[in-house]
Fold this protein.
Amino acid sequence: MQMRLVYFARVREAIGMDCEERDLPATVHTIQDCLDWLRQCDTRYALAFADPVRLRYALDQQMVTAEAPLAGYRELAIFPPVTGG
């Protein structure tokens, strides 16, 4: 499955890019699976996703949890919580 991954704020800074297209392995079914897989790919991802409890996720611009399945979606956005002021 191919997925567009979009990164924001400190996640983008840690990885060094704002988005990428990735072919996900067949073993990746949820956002959590994707994070686990990416962490193993490169130390930049391990740093960016070191504290996944503090991250937020959107699939095709709809907010979801890390347990959300990826099937049927084209874009996963990953970002830290946003505060206003």
